[in-house]
Amino acid sequence: MLNLAPSDSHQNIRYDSDYPIIDNENETIPDDGQWYYHSYDWEISADDPLGTYDLLGSLRRSTDWEDVLEDTEDGMSTTSLGPDAWRQRVFTAWGQQEGDGTVRYHALVVGNGDGEPNTTYPFEDDEAIAAADVDRVKDSLAERAENWSHDRIRTLKNEQVSQVAIENAFEDIGAAMDADDVFLFFYSGHGTNPPPSIGLWWGNLTPSELFAMVDKYIPPGAHVITIVNACNSGVFVSHLLTGTGRVDTYAMTACEADQNVATSSWFFRWPWRGSLFAHHFCAAIEGDADLPPPDGSGNANGEISFNEIFDYVQPRVMSGSWPINMSPQRYPASGTNDIPVMKGAGASGIIPSIALHAPASDIAVVQGQIVEISWTDGDSDDDATILLAWDPDDIEQPWVVGDHTWIADAAGDPYYLSEDEDGADGHHAWSSSGVPVGTYVVWAVIYDGEHARYSRAPGRVTVTDEKGYLAINLGPAEAVAAGAKWQVDSGPWQDSGDTVTLTVGDHSVDYKDIAGWDAPAGETATIVKDQTTQLDSSYTQHTGSLKVTAEMGPGLMLDTNGRNGFVDMTDKYGDRVRVYLRDRVCKSVRQ
């Protein structure tokens, strides 16, 4: 029960949440060991005496109204429940604190890995991930928009995270705010349900306790944005949906009340460090949410609102969180109310680009064979990194299912390839050794430390273990000496007698053109499993004829029967040519 009384006379109760004592407007607190937050509003009448008033509170047994279990008053005769039964969260809010006409943005960014070993993903360092989220959120806010600055952003990391430290930060930040300002609370770390709470280095913080701090320290009228990136974080939206939140409150959570979150970059094979939700949240406030669809969710006006951030983050988190299956939530759920978060924050710098163009069409390879991958990239203002991956899911969006595999070296370390600032083609020879039999899509991601962009190769790659062989002998020897070669499926040129390994089925064979010879026509070679297909192909030398018509005259010498002889002539190029006649066959020789 709550009472409002003059400070100098607590017995003079002017307002009571249940007066007279008829037990009809009380908040019943379940006996379940959880903390609950309740509030009550009075309308102060113009007749009330001026002066200072105190807010008093008591806990009474619901089955016996006269049994006061705990009371804010000293010296009261109560049946005490002990010092932990009543937390002093009693305060008054006398209307809206006036602002000075200037909107200032303040934030408290908290990350907690709780110091416990990660038994699910033992290769991960939860404390490092939480700290990385805090650093990036702070930098993204302070360095990407004109309405934020480092001196108005407080941070707490890991062992610094306690309920006392959070409340002290709330108190300090609230003292510097007025009704025109905006306060953002961001938490990244662990969460539970039940009990509904976020994890601290020691203990937990419930939605009731968090929003009680908001009401106690953040001036009425100031806008409050709460972002919670934790397992079961949807409980914070659920709490606000009960009607206990302020009208100036916005909230976004990484998942629903019964879902977990993806925090492991090792398991999900991301090219960045940190959690999935924090990555997309930061990409949104760094400018991506201001881009028009499909790259973003905004209107390119240089300002990013709460709803634009949510509309950017939600689909990307949902599509990238398998098998966790995260579904971000927001309050107000309708998205009708909105507030600017980043001003002057259009996409900064040059967003990297990449376009895969090979494999250009569907191909099949035997395990261990090389697949040529090529692309065009661009990012003129940063040193971006390119990673390549193969994915069994034939879809148009990357990582909808998180079973892609980074193309890596023999030690299993992904190839981190450098982008080319001038947009020239990049190439990589991917060895399919160790790749399971199946059909795959090749993806590339280019990442400059802030923005990630993806590209899918036009052709799919089928890896098989059913193979045969093809050998081709070329002739004649003169053509081979002149450079005769063959190729299969537009691959590299092969020499006469070479044997190549191919997938079972039909393959196209072509022959190289060389001067003075006609190449064999292209043909189809059928490869049978575990057998060698042998082909013999011959080049044909070019032939021609020369017709000489000459009148008898000086320089033409013939034998007595007119069958043999020669004549010296000048051709149209000015070169001297001797034409021989042997058995009525002419042959020309350039002098």
Describe this structure in words.
With 591 residues, the chain is α+β, with helices and mostly antiparallel strands. The protein folds into 5 domains: 1-92, no CATH class; 105-343, Rossmann fold, CATH 3.40.50.1460; 353-464, Immunoglobulins (Immunoglobulin-like); 467-541, Immunoglobulin-like (Sandwich); 557-590, no CATH class. Strands 17, 19, 20, 21, 23, 24 and 25 form a 7-stranded mixed sheet that branches. The protein is elongated. The model is unreliable at 19-24, 75-96 and 551-563 (pLDDT under 50).
List strands and helices in order, with pairings.
Elements: E1 2-6, E2 15-16, E3 53-61, E4 64-71, E5 105-112, H1 126-144, E6 153-157, H2 163-175, E7 182-189, E8 191-192, E9 197-199, E10 204-205, H3 207-217, E11 223-229, H4 234-244, E12 249-253, H5 265-268, H6 276-285, E13 303-305, H7 306-320, E14 329-331, E15 340-343, E16 353-358, E17 363-366, E18 370-378, E19 385-391, E20 405-406, E21 417-418, E22 425-431, E23 438-447, E24 452-456, E25 461-464, E26 467-475, H8 477-481, E27 486-488, E28 499-503, E29 505-511, E30 517-518, E31 523-527, E32 532-538, E33 540-541, E34 557-558, E35 565-570, E36 576-582, E37 585-590
Parallel strand pairs: 5-6, 5-7, 7-11, 11-12, 17-25, 26-32
Antiparallel strand pairs: 1-2, 1-3, 3-4, 8-9, 9-10, 12-14, 13-15, 16-18, 18-22, 19-20, 19-21, 19-23, 23-24, 23-25, 26-28, 27-29, 29-31, 30-33, 34-35, 35-36, 36-37
Helix pairs in contact: 1-6, 2-3, 6-7
